[in-house]
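in:
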């Protein structure tokens, strides 16, 4: 008699940990680019949401050989002056996939899905056996909290490995640090400099500092490069909009109709879709 199969299900963390190449970890050079980009994107998004002019620093240091063939062990630290995170949210943000403040809010941001920074934690964990080290302080907190967060891959849950309160000379902000297997590529289209310089070009309100091994020595600045903002004006945040019916498939249209309880069709059509007048009425 044929044996019956056992069907089991996997957590989203299990899926991503096995398919990290889909979210930017397809090579050692991309791994460091993605790590920096995910952290900087989050800093920019958080500052934008809080109406803060962003000041972000990116620190990269080579620690020695990596665990993978032809890789190096590299420390990446990204620090911002954003609003910071509440201590209890850090574990979700860094240790859980699909945890985000940006779902379904009807406007664009750099991140949308709550995948990016958890994938970085997973890469650090897989290659260096240690997740994210985070320092966070909100304006309300008297002291900062420093903790190490990892992903419980089996259950897609964040796990706090250590936690302490520390003094931090910032009113608010967040620092995240990862030690990852990677390889630094500075130049060329996929290089770190193209990304960092491009980021300041498209975000003229950003002041960016970076220190990366392999750059021309700059003894007078302790090897930090600073690109100052060229405008003090924050980008205007677009209004959130409802979806346009022409973008919807039949199933989406039906699902959308169930979201608002018992309303008349005419009120639903008028209020829950983007109109041609450029606003929701
Ligand atoms: N540097 C930061 N400062 C404040 N909040 C942050 C920071 N980084 C992440 N967050 C919060 O954590 C959430 C999840 O981040 P992430 O996993 O990268 O997903 P996404 O950026 O797609 O929302 C963000 O939506 C944001 O609310
Ligand atoms: Mg993100």
């Amino acid at each position: 008699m044929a044996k019956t199969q056992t069907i089991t299900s996997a957590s989203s963390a299990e899926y991503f940990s096995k398919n990290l190449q889909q979210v930017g970890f397809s090579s050692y050079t991309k791994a460091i680019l993605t790590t920096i980009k995910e952290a900087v994107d989050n800093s920019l998004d958080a500052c934008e949401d809080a109406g803060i002019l962003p000041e972000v620093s990116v620190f990269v240091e080579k620690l020695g050989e990596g665990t993978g063939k032809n890789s190096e062990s590299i420390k990446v630290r990204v620090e911002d002056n954003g609003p910071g995170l509440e201590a209890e949210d850090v574990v979700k943000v860094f240790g859980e996939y699909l945890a985000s403040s940006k779902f379904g809010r009807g406007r664009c941001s750099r991140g949308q899905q709550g995948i990016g920074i958890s994938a970085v934690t997973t890469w650090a964990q897989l290659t260096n056996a240690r997740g994210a080290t985070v320092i966070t302080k909100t304006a309300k907190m008297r002291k900062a909290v420093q903790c190490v967060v990892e992903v419980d891959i089996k259950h897609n849950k964040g796990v706090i490995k250590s936690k302490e309160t520390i003094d931090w000379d910032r009113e608010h902000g967040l620092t995240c640090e990862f030690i990852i297997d990677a390889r630094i590529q500075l130049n060329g289209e996929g290089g770190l400099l193209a990304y960092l310089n491009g980021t300041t070009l498209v975000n003229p309100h950003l002041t960016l500092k970076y220190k990366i091994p392999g750059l021309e020595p700059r003894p007078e600045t302790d090897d930090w490069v600073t690109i100052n903002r060229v405008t003090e004006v924050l980008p205007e945040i677009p209004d959130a909009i409802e979806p346009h019916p022409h973008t919807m498939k039949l199933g989406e249209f039906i699902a959308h109709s169930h979201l608002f309880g018992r309303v008349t069709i005419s009120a639903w059509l008028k209020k829950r879709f983007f109109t041609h007048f450029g606003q929701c009425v």
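note: The chain has a mean pLDDT of 93.
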